[in-house]
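=== RUN LOG ===
request id: a7f3
mode: sequence -> structure
chains: 1
length: 90
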Amino acid sequence: MDITKTIADKFDEASEKVKDVVDNAREEFEDAKDEMQAKRIIEERADRPPTAVEEAAAERADTEPGRVRDSYQDAMKKGANTKGEGAVTI
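=== RESULT ===
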């Protein structure tokens, strides 16, 4: 038997094993990610409906969509133009 063929066969076997390990790890990661997302959804859910006082306070709150949008855009512009300390570089 040709030694080159034997080495190639062993390489193919090892490649298949590595592929299987990577596939299994990828599946385990996806399962864990799904579990974390489900847990996060459960944890973020309110434990009770709002009381009448909380609903009234929410109605009185100053949350105009335009004002919120403008504040967000202003903050983004300031952050984009930050220089020196506090600047985030990627």
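=== NOTES ===
The CA atoms of residues 36 and 60 lie 35 Å apart.
The helical segments are 3-44, 52-60, 65-80.
=== END ===
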